[in-house]
Amino acid sequence: MIKGFSIVEVLVVLALTLVLVSMIVSNVMESNRCTQKIIDNQQRLESIFHTVDTLKSDLTNCGMRLQEASDTFGFATFEHTDQSLRVLYGVGEEALLEGGFQGEVAITINRNEFFSRRKEVLIYDKERGCYEFNRIDKYEGDRLLLYYELQNDYSEYSTVVVLKEVQYKIYEDQKSLKRKVNRGYFQPMIEEVTDFNITYYPESVSVLYRIEINNKEQVRGYIFLVNLVEK
Amino acid sequence: MKHRNNSGNIMMVILLVVLLTFLGLGLMSFSTLHNWIRGSRTHKLSAVAKMRSELTYYLHHFYLEVFGADIRDFGRPETDFFNADHFPDTTGVIDHRIKIRNSFSHRTVPKNGYDDIRVTDVIDVVSPVHPYGIRAEVSIDMVCGQIPLTFFPFFLNTAGDIPGESFIEGNHPVNGGDGNMVIGGVEVERDTGGFLMDCLGIQGDELTWALIRMKFGFELSDQPLPNGVHLLEEGGAVRCIFIQGDVERLAFFAEGDIQKIRFVRGGMSYEYHYKPGEDYFMHWNDRRLEDKGFDEKILVNGNIGSLEQVGDAAFTASSNITLFASGTIVIRTNLLAALDSKVTLSTHLTLLSCFEKLFGGEGKTPGIVVETVHIEDGAEIQVSIVTDGKVVNKNPKLKVEGGIYCEELENQGVIEVNHLKSNSGCGAFFRTLDFKTIYHFHIRSMEEV
Q1: Closest residue on chain B to A229 (Cα)
Q2: A95, B56: Cβ pair inside 8 Å?
Q3: In chain B, which residues touch A (CB < 8 A)?
Q4: How far is CA B311 from CA B45, B253, B259, B308, in A?
């Protein structure tokens, strides 16, 4: 006679197994959830760090190499609304080695790594009181060719600055803070942003920024715009 | 069978152990990596912040050193002062391990009688214990030589040596823009005769009435020109307008691109219209001088009782008028240029009130008085002023877009000067002797490298 399990024994074993399996599954799921949460938090923290570092770096650089030109010609290197920001600064600077003339596209400067193709440039002559924005096309020997013809005459030692324009903007529908450099597209910096706020204090040449994530965490900081201070 | 079953269980256990080990190591390495990133970031931030503080402190020190020294003591300040002897490599104040290094370079642009020199100092802040660094680029602009007196925002050239700071506190000239105020005795060249001869196109060593009369077509004598308004036409242009005797009113007004000037003297009114830089010149009697331009020089041998603006603007955007008076000029209204999209970098009127022995006489004291009426917000004048007499401000608030050179100041309010240079050619006749001054100190960049 083959001995077997009674139906009660099978049900008890099945029930115990079910309980054990459900405990294990729930534990594993909880553990996974925790792990995911930790990973998410760490990633969010990394993107907050990255965003704040980038924002601070852009704000610190704001106006760099453009103090004289913006002072003389009155164009803004820092503009903001409550929820967007635009900074302009120079990443490289050279003086014209020869005069440049209206209608020409070639200028002569000392070559350096900042003056590369498609970079936006500002050319200004404080003595003559003229300036213009242009773009680098390519080098031809020692001459730098521009995309557009010069609109003014420039004397020797006029200044040419390679520009970097950075914009920040919050996309409320996407809950995303995005950053755009020069002519590029707005690229997401950080997700789940519920508020981005910029306040400028002209008397102390400083900026208070605030980034709010998920209506909970807030990152705020106060930055002194060192490159906008003249003396 | 039993043996195979045991073997299977062991394999399962080993697989489980290996899996757990990988999971554990993965989690550990992830956390370690994360902690390492956080640690590095914190480390870098703190190191960079420390270097930035050191740099800021050093820049302040550098600024004080630069402006604390009198660069006139150096023959060639661009190399004799801005060098490693005066600014040696140093260490941080808070962290002595931090090194601060200066690298100087300069370029010189020769101008008419003087040099415009830019010294660039690249300041590197580095630490032997970190791979990071901060770099600042500072430019110092200075002029050396015979500098036009209109180059300075405010220049009080007194005979005695007076302390500049206490003078500024007591007399309220405020520098609202570029450049530095100069207060004290400085050797200058004021060649009024040479300036007048240049305006009148007279060659020779000394200005005489005979030469002036000859220029205007009068019979030769040592008598002054007859009282009145005289026009000097020469070389296809109206070289200057010369007025002998006091002027009761002199008004400037702009209509589009036409500059208008009206004189009132002896109850008579004279009006001239012209387009700066173009061959268009019209008399008060509607006589148009075809194909004649105007050199925009007005010479008055006498006092100007009221210098005024009529309408919204005194000057067109292209005007560049030089007005000389041997006596006192009294400014009674605002003197503003027409708004234009072009950036205004120079003044449209240069006022000169200087002594010339040929023009001297009783009742003629060089000087400029600003006494505007009916202007509640304070007066605003866009002029470059040069006088070897006194500047008197009777307004509670006066804004000068241009510059002031004088030898005495009586200020009954506050004068705010925002410097604009003068494009008048008078700088060749009214200038310093060997003078040196720093007019710009710019921190052009501060960045991590």
Answers
A1: B443
A2: no
A3: 27, 34, 37-38, 41, 56, 63, 107, 109, 137, 178, 342-346, 440-448
A4: 59, 7, 12, 10
DSSP symbol at A173: T
Token pair 């002896």 in the structure block, residue: B266
Say yes or no: ipTM exceeds 0.85.
no
Could you read off the pLDDT of B220-261 as tens digits, one per residue? 888 888 998 898 988 788 899 999 999 999 999 999 889 999
Contact flag A90-B445 (C-beta cutoff 8 Å): yes
Closest CB to B343: pick one of A73, A93, A156: A73
How many Å apart are CA B344 and CA B315, to the nearest integer? Answer: 12
Q: Tell me the C-alpha distance between A96 and A128, whole Å.
A: 14
From the list B27, B34, B345, which residue is nearest A129 (CB)? Answer: B345
Nearest to A210 by CA among A199, A202, A201, A200: A199
Q: Which residues of A touch B178 (CB under 8 A)?
A: 71
Closest CA to B110 of A155, A49, A34, A117: A155
The one-letter amino acid code at B85 reads D
Helix (H) or strand (E) holding B25: helix B2-68
Of B38, B63, B343, the CB nearest to A74: B343
Is 0.80 topped by the overall pTM? Answer: no
Query: A with B: how many residue pairs have Cβ under 8 Å apart?
Result: 56
Please list, residue by residue across A78-96, b when 16 or more beta carbons sit within 10 angstroms of its beta carbon and e when fewer do.
bebeeeebbbbbbbbbbeb
CA-nearest of B247, B235, B233 to B301 is: B247
